[in-house]
Amino acid sequence: MPDASFIYTIYIRATPERIWQALTDPSLTSQFWFLTHSTDWAVGSTMTWHVAGVDIVDAEQVVLVFDEPRRLSFTWQTFTPEFGEAVGDDPELLARLASEERSTATFDIEPAGAQTKLTITHTGFETGSAVLAGVTDGWPMVLSSLKSLLETGQALAFH
Questions:
Q1: What is the per-residue burial (b if ≥16 Cβ within 10 Å, else e) of 52-91?
Q2: Which SUPFAM superfamilies match (predicted)?
């Protein structure tokens, strides 16, 4: 039974609307996250992930909550062999990632004075999850890059 989760909060000098736009607009998402999503953002709609030149299509990749500009939630990506090849994942690690239950990423956006509080809650992991280990390293980098982009106009470079 899934019981582990990852929660990370960051404060960004930007409006909730600007953060929302960055999370949902592919022209911004591609700058700080190095991926994009194709979806109409309606609850229940599927999301196609575009990562490292690979399109990941799966009927279980769906929008769960779309409460602009307060809350956005969706099921986490599918780990395909094509994704693994594109990002250079070890085949053994990719098999572990692909074998896990689907998790959920939720962004909560709250005004906090002159800035905005952004919290990512990523849930649905079993103890020892390889996906959890990956997002534990990944989310702080992604959200730091988002903060940098919105506050300075330049995302961080991780390549």
A1: eebebebeebbbeebeebebbbbbbbbbbeebbeeeebee
A2: Bet v1-like
Q: Which two tokens stand for residue 1?
A: 């039974």
**CB neighbour list of residue 119: distance below 8 Å, 6 or more residues apart:** 7, 8, 9, 10, 107, 108, 110
7-59 pLDDT, tens digit each:
999 999 999 999 999 999 999 999 999 899 999 999 999 999 998 888 999 99
Separation between Cα atoms, residue 135 and residue 105, nearest integer Å: 10
Q: Which of 10, 13, 4 has its CA nearest to residue 152?
A: 13
Residue by residue, DSSP assigns 99-137 as HSPP-EEEEEEEEETTEEEEEEEEEEE-TT-HHHHHHHH
Sorted by where each begins, the domain ranges of the chain are: 4-118+148-152
CATH 3.60.15.10 fits 4-118+148-152, yes or no: no
Q: What's the burial of 132, exposed, middle or buried (CB within 10 Å: 0-12/13-18/19+)?
A: buried
